[in-house]
Amino acid sequence: MTTNHILTVENLTTRFQTPDGEVEAVNNVNFHIDPGETLGVVGESGSGKTQIFLSLMGLLAKNGASTGSVRYKDKEILNLQPRELNKIRGVSMSMIFQDPMTSLNPFLKISRQMTEVLVEHRGMSESDALARAITMLDRVGIPGAAQRVHMYPHEFSGGMRQRVMIAMALLCDPEVLIADEPTTALDVTVQAQILDLLRDLQTDFNTATVMITHDLGVVAGLCDRVMVMYGGRVVETGSVRDIYYDSHHPYTEGLLKSMPRIDRADEESLFAIPGQPPNLQNLPKGCAYQERCEYVFDRCCAERPLLREFGNGRASACFREDDK
Amino acid sequence: MSVMNKSAKKDASPILSVRDLKVHFPIPSKGLFAPDRQLKAVDGVNFDLYPGETLGVVGESGCGKSTLGRAILQLIPPTDGQVAWLGKNIVGAPHRDMQPLRRDLQIIFQDPLASLNPRMTIGEIIAEPLVTHKPELGKEEIKARVKRMMARVGLLPQMINRYPHEFSGGQCQRIGIARAMILEPKLIVCDEPVSALDVSIQAQIVNLLQELQREFDLSLIFISHDLSIVRHICHRIMVLYLGNVAELADRDSIYAAPRHPYTKALISAVPIPDPEIERNKERIVLTGDLPSPLSPPSGCVFRTRCPFAKDKCAQEPPVLERVSDSQEVACHFHDSI
Ligand SMILES: Nc1ncnc2c1ncn2[C@@H]1O[C@H](COP(=O)(O)OP(=O)(O)OP(=O)(O)O)[C@@H](O)[C@H]1O
Ligand SMILES: Nc1ncnc2c1ncn2[C@@H]1O[C@H](COP(=O)(O)OP(=O)(O)OP(=O)(O)O)[C@@H](O)[C@H]1O
Ligand code: SF4
Ligand code: SF4
Ligand SMILES: [Mg+2]
Ligand SMILES: [Mg+2]
Fold it and tell me: Where this protein primarily resides, as one coarse class (chain B) (predicted)?
């Protein structure tokens, strides 16, 4: 089958070795993304969202290892040598990290941090690289970019720093942009500016974007497709409309119902999913959601539900579907 | 719930009255002989709070929400103004007068784990206020009360001897709530109590706070940057901007018809988890960042980002004006915009 997927992930599994045993952070995850498309990745804290993308960027912590396959266009990139990976990483595929300070060096001026990759990977001269850096800072809405490019990270406000990170991720016109909670630490008015910026970039450059977030409102406004994670596994995928208006998995349903909404005055108490998220070190036999699921029945505790497709790119991992 | 509270509020007298409250932090200047500068974190806040009422305090990071909450509880000494608790001003009250009031005034924090002493068992953590304020109670009685409160907030009482690190974020927040509730206070300042929690756990904690409020006729000051949760839990909302109140109104008024340009922008920026609505709604996108609180704009503090700013806005600070029974706004042009 020929596709124009720019990124294809198959059977990705990532495990960490810890003194207390193995942690299965990512389990048998499959997805793909096309140019110009935005994929939303949602799920509770610890459900494996970040580790999927650190795995495919080759940035896992030392105690972690991945198996499976990740193809950028037709090229297998999982577990590639750093030297090979660096030709793609930060060039064709960039990531905006959850913690801004992971990708910004506090001791180096922004100019230095931005020009380095261009000189190294694009063979640009220092002065061309600087001009490009200023253009990108300008593009993400940093006023006075020509002066500010010479400042240190701590001299920027939180929102500005986030924009610097986006500018850095976009320096080499990546075809895939992975944004890990890029607006979570920001105020809503600044978040709105950044989301507008991401939307514009998508229209202008046809960038394939992955948006990792816990904010279902952000996903509703930005994404084409959604992948819902629970306990290290994908439990549901579908178009944004299918997920929001016709969710099939009980966790997705619960998550959507438990969001208080600014456009509604509900007098009753909120719907709350009972219990706690599962411990990845010690997942129950059967469905990881069984202890919190209102529809749980015998089979859920004995067998693990696999992701089952039912057309239109929709899939859900739940036995309840079998009876529908 | 809110209907009941609104009617109750009319005949009751306020439990807390805050008048012209200011907290200015001195910031050492760089020059050797230059005078210290003042960071006006809270710059003249007024409001009343009634029994059983929840007041939401919202605004961007650094606008003074936490400072206001702490200054009300006298955990930070106010620079100026009054805080009347049950009719009596407590600003500058000596320690010996404050001590008995602490029983009625509690606080819970954003970071559940960091706010709990890691070397104490959760039983000891929850019991601590009882041991301090009710030393006459016997050991058995204290233990019984702690277990009762644990059960009430949804913690298994047999976990009494466990340590905080053995609990999840949501459970730690329940421990913080149990500790705040153990003396059956009249007011709890909740400083971003659910911000660090997962969506599915947030709803559990919000519901718990609402139940406790009903059961104990608690008043809450609910500090948050999440305007969706605030709409759900609060009866009245105060919008802060650089230490100043931009708008103060009943929940229904402020969400249905915000009057201050900042409130309008803030509400319109909150993403709605519904693709059709979110993609088609009207949004007011503000430009620029929050100005430095060390050199706030002259006149109206919001004018550098306000799409309606005129000359007058740079010259005169607007005062909070009552525009209806249930709504107060600080904007020179609230009538025309
Ligand atoms: N180096 C490591 N060693 C052991 N376990 C790890 C390591 N790094 C991550 N994990 C575990 O992997 C799981 C998945 O983590 P991940 O960072 O992907 O979560 P997430 O979904 O991004 O959560 P959040 O919303 O909090 O960012 C977590 O349970 C985490 O504790
Ligand atoms: N002890 C202090 N000394 C000097 N400045 C302070 C002090 N505490 C707070 N500030 C400043 O006062 C202002 C208000 O801070 P505050 O913590 O009240 O904001 P906030 O609204 O709670 O923000 P956030 O949403 O980030 O918690 C900020 O500019 C802050 O830097
Ligand atoms: S498989 Fe069973 S427990 Fe799991 S989500 Fe479906 S109904 Fe619930
Ligand atoms: S007073 Fe002026 S600057 Fe301030 S909010 Fe009103 S119109 Fe805008
Ligand atoms: Mg993450
Ligand atoms: Mg605060």
Answer: membrane
Question: Phi-psi category of B86—alpha, beta or left, where left has phi over 0 and alpha has psi -120 to 50?
Answer: left
Is the CB of residue B76 below 6 angstroms from any atom belonging to ligand 2?
no
Shortest CA distance from A187: residue in chain B: B60
Q: What residues contact residue A298 under an 8 Å CB cut-off, 6+ apart?
A: none
Q: What is the pLDDT at residue A24?
A: 92
Stretch 222-261 of chain B: residues touching chain A, C-beta under 8 Å:
225, 227-229, 231-232, 251-252, 255
Would you mind telling me the total number of residues written for chain B in this entry?
337
Q: Which residue stretches of chain A are H helix?
A: 49-56, 82-85, 100-103, 110-122, 126-139, 145-148, 158-170, 188-205, 216-222, 240-245, 250-258, 298-302, 320-323
Q: What are phi and psi of A86, to 5 degrees?
A: -65, -15
Q: Delimit the domains of chain A by residue range.
A: 7-92+172-323, 100-171
This model's pTM is above 0.90: yes
| B229-240 mean pLDDT | 96
State the CATH architecture for A7-92+172-323: 3-Layer(aba) Sandwich (3.40)
Domains (range + CATH), chain B: 2-104+185-329 (3.40.50.300)
Ligand 3 contacts CB of residue A305 (under 6 A): yes
In whole angstroms, what is the distance from residue A258 CA to residue A115 CA? 45
Provide CB contacts within 8 A for A296, sequence distance 6+: A287, A290
Q: What is the mean pLDDT of chain A?
A: 91
Taking CA–CA distances from A279, the nearest residue in chain B reads B168
